[in-house]
Known about the structure:
By secondary structure, the protein is α/β, with parallel strands linked by helices. Helix content is 49%, strand content 10%.
Amino acid sequence: MRIEMSRAILTAGLCVSAGSFLAAAVTADDISSRARKLHFSSIVIDTHDDTTQRFLDANFDIGLRSPSGSIDIPRMREGGLGAIFFSIWIPSKVTGPEAVNRAMAQIEAVREQVRKHPKDLILATTAAEIREARKNRKIAALMGVEGGHMINSDLDVVRKFASLGVQYMTLTHTGNVEWADSATAKAVHNGLTDFGKDVIREMNRLGMMVDISHVSDKTFYDALEVSKAPLIASHSSCRALCDAARNMTDQMMKDLAAKGGVIQINYHVGFLSQEFRNAEKAHPEWEQAIAAEIKQRCGDNEACLLIEGDHVTREYVAQGKLPRVDWTKIIEHIDHAVKVVGAEHVGLGSDFDGANMPYGMEDATRLPHITEALLQKGYSESDIKKILGENTLRLMAEVERVSHELNQRPRE
Ligand SMILES: [Zn+2]
């Protein structure tokens, strides 16, 4: 999510002391054999990870267990993560050809990681390819472009992204784009412009999922009306539990689900916990201080900024300034969403490596705890499999079906 920028900054990492202590306190032994069996026999999909920024750092190797951040191959294996959507992201303020070029560089960086690790990773662009990857014991790597500013208002760029394997595009990030309003900027388009609607139609034709995380409520409803395929919220949580403008209201979730869409719950503490959000709002000076501290540690290195944000935020939690948010908040959001729209329309979109993770969900190794918690809540094994990944696979297959259908019609 690369949070609301200044706050992306306000992210969190593994407070080396507190974080690892807690991780040790709740060990893998807490996972029952039933949960373990269910989890590791499911296709677990995470539809939003910001690890891509790290690929631009020559010192980072996704094949090695990293002491920082949340994602690498050993930890994905340990947590049973079967498919991961790497986010292609640059700040909203970067526009024009530079935005396109930087997006292309990140797409290439993801593809290069796949080339370097052929035994563990394989690029996937369809639901069937994710299932195939699973059969071959590989982790499916997918890509989502996070922000329509990276197309430079040009449908040719959308087509290029699709041809390079990009599976979804988030219409906006934290700022408006020339054709769509964001949830976290003052509305200037009243949702989608006519060109914005053309973008949706072209994405439908290309078989790219339309991602409505980050967009304004009106943009969401415009996209819902125009799109011939169901929509995805790749990393959004429930506004009823945490009043962030980029979380979804119960009514939005119902309308999304009525057209076959899925909300993938975001783990960022500022989107999970109202208490955390209130504390941040009450002390805007902390946000500035955290931003300054991170900047001092990282300069302009985006990957460092994202990961150190998590570290520094946890230092504030350790000092008692910001409230501690536990991973069970993720379960509260999943459970709320399931109560509102049913288990067929809920999934996981962590925001790992781009946001402040709650205690106990520091990295991908922690994912089996979600399965354990849902079993303890009385969820059926089949509902849990849907939440872990089957809903995303169904949505992708439907987006592919709509694309095939549209391509068989004469162009309008
Ligand atoms: Zn985001």
